[in-house]
Amino acid sequence: MTHTKNLILSVNSQNLKTFFIKKIISNYKYWLAGVITREIRNNGQREGYEIRTLEGEKSVLASVKILSDISFNKYAVNRSALEDFALRAIKIAIEKEKIILIDEVGGITLLSDKFIEQVRLALSSRMPVLLVVRSGARTFLDTLSSMSETKVYNMEKDNYSEIEKKTDEWFEFWIKRINHDG
Question: Deepest in the core among 36, 94, 109, 157, taking most CB within 10 A?
């Protein structure tokens, strides 16, 4: 069985997405590079988001505690976290010939044309990409789903096990292929 080069997961639940991404990183970290987003919480309240590389570097992506010329809802957006930090991490993933993980494309990341262009470059690179998209990012998702070598799955609580199995099969296929080609 062959698999598309790019796998896009559209996820609506933050908890489901976080659980899934943690499992993917736990199982496949050696083969992965890229970025993930996490909530910044203080006393149970969300104060923003940070973006992290899989090597542990992190930068505040958006927060109620920073000032910026761009914002999303109540959060000021740190443009350099997207246009410097995240872009560098994605470029390094391509150069290292790793499976590229980009978590996530949503309202905040869609504010940066440079970030979106880097995502497109990653999807067009020779390396496979696992891209997580907030289900609310319809326009971007519609554009991506029309790309060749790209499969989109809508992950929900009811189909989690099925999507997890398909994603594991996708990883196993690409790991074997990278080992064979490398």
Answer: 109
Q: In CATH, what is the architecture of 6-181?
A: 3-Layer(aba) Sandwich (3.40)
Q: What is the pTM of this model?
A: 0.93
| 127 SS3 class | coil
Give the whole-angstrom CA distance, residue 24 versus residue 22.
Answer: 6
CA 11 to chain centre: 11
